[in-house]
Amino acid sequence: MSKRSTFGNIFGTIAVVGGSVVGLGNIWRFPYVAGENGGAAFILVYICMSLFISIPIMLTEMSIGRAGQSNAMGSFRRLSKTRAWQGVGLLGVITAFIIMSFYSVIAGWSIKFFAESVSDGFAGKSPNEIESAFTAFISSGWKPISLALLFIVMSGAIIMGGVTKGIEKANKILMPIMAIILVGMVIKSTTLSGWSEGTKFLLNPDFSKITWSVALQALGQSFFSMSLGMGAMIIYGSYIKKKSNMFKIAGMVAISDVTIAVLSGLAIFPAVFTFGIEPASGPQLVFITLPNVFAQMSGGYILSIVFFVLLFFAAITSSVSLIEVMVSFVHEEFRIKRVQATLIIMIALALISSACVMSQMPGSTIRVIGLDLIDFNDKLTSVFLMPVGALFSMLFGGWVLSRKSLFNELSSNGLFKHDTLIKITYFLVKYIIPAVILLLFITETIKFFIPAT
Ligand code: PHE
Q1: Rounded Cα–Cα distance for residues 66 and 80 (Å)
Q2: Is residue 67 a contact partner of residue 400, using CB atoms and an 8 Å limit?
Q3: Max Cα separation, the chain?
Q4: Measured in angstroms, how far is the CA atom of residue 99 from the centroid of ligand 1?
Q5: Per-residue confidence at 444, pLDDT binned at 50, 70, 90?
Q6: Rounded to whole angstroms, what are the CA distances from 59 to 72, 183, 247?
Q7: Is any ligand 1 atom within 6 A of the Cβ of residue 225?
Q8: Whose C-alpha lies nearest to ligand 1, atom 7?
């Protein structure tokens, strides 16, 4: 059997795992969710959740992959005597497929908005015109479908390049460019008159705004943003070198994730306040609100191009990890060559993404409980599938996998002495995190199926 590929040095590993984690979740989802949930108070809770819940989950999922040395499903099978546990891995593969169904559509929008920016398409348009252009675009069918397909093909091409030459190389180049673009945008933002109001909104917490629902939203956002509960960290864990320090990787990646999310907020909200736009504009924030902002501000032309490039880069490094969950599964479980496996997955994704776009067309009958497929799949994964996946992975890590195996992975076979950190992680994974997820899961599921009237 050929030797399993591994990521290179620690910088390469952090770039790849960071590439998965930093995505549309940080730049598109985080600012609007923070906007809707009171800004700074939300961010504070979000940081606590990332620290005490998401980092231990990430460490455990990476450990399952590195100990199992296989795809999400194979890793569970190899590490337990009961075959039923491989179902958790399979659930991850299915979740990755459903997330990609809408992720590719929204990433496709970023291509369209990039092109629009280059041709100076937002200039001189009124807010109404910008909004109706957006609606006309998403309901046109063939345009968003072809862009989603283009995005799937580009992601697939990276995957076909393999783990080191494709995935790692692309991430090493794209991640630093992204960080530079974002810092540049924040610097530009400091020159706006809404800078102080924007930063106050994001950094000055009003503790009375911390409610149960804010906490739940923060946890859900953290799962999505840290790519948890669906096998991405398991498959990437399986490519991490045995000598690499897991705490360093998870710590650096979590810091990057939170920093990029907050920086995106700092790049966006001062502009939102400068031009008197509602911070709680919802999912449209990036695609309707921001073009308005760009149309009105000096330097908006260049900035809008740069912003949509950033959004596209962030999306593609994440989608690669989502697709790798599926490709490694087909490749290893069915012994199909990597290139063929990628082609099969690309065709399946093309079909489901097209269905997602079609469900947004006027008069479409593709609807589930009153939602179009993009909304439904987004909710289904973040509210239901990811928490369930994370819960079972924690039960596996805390109760099924031997304490010794988990400790061996976390210390890289005794190479790194993190005794206290390892014990705290173990305690959180075994008791606290399952309890918190269960609570989140029960309340969110009730809310999902019985919407408040
Ligand atoms: N974390 C990615 C983001 O923030 C999304 C993602 C979820 C990627 C799950 C992989 C797995 O956009």
Answers
A1: 14
A2: no
A3: 65
A4: 8
A5: low
A6: 15, 28, 7
A7: yes
A8: 227
Q: Where are the alpha helices (DSSP H) in 3-85?
A: 10-21, 24, 30-36, 40-49, 55-68, 72-79
Reference 113, options 379, 352, 295; nearest CA is: 295
Percent with pLDDT over 90 in the chain: 61
What is the Cα–Cα distance from 402 to 386, expressed in whole angstroms? 24
The pLDDT of 273-297, averaged and rounded, is 80
72: closest CA among 330, 248, 293, 283?
A: 330
Q: Nearest 5 degrees, angle CA 276-CA 279-CA 282?
A: 130
Alpha helix ranges (H) inside 243-337: 246-274, 289-296, 300-333
Find where tokens 């966006």 sit: 268
Q: Whose CA is nearest to atom 10 of ligand 1?
A: 227
The predicted-structure confidence for 202-226, as pLDDT tens digits, reads as follows 999 888 888 877 887 888 889 999 9
116-122's contacts with Cβ under 8 Å and 24+ in sequence apart are 116/291, 117/294, 117/301, 117/304, 117/305, 117/307, 117/308, 118/305, 120/301, 122/291, 122/292, 122/294, 122/295, 122/300, 122/304
Residue 403 pLDDT > 90: yes
| Ligand 1 contact via 58 beta carbon (within 6 Å) | no
Question: The tokens 């609570």 sit on which residue?
Answer: 439
Please state, in angstroms and rounded to a whole number, the distance separating the CA atoms of residues 360 and 358: 5
At which residue do the structure tokens 């504009």 appear? 281
pLDDT at 452 over 80: no
The closest residue, in CA terms, to atom 9 on ligand 1 is: 227
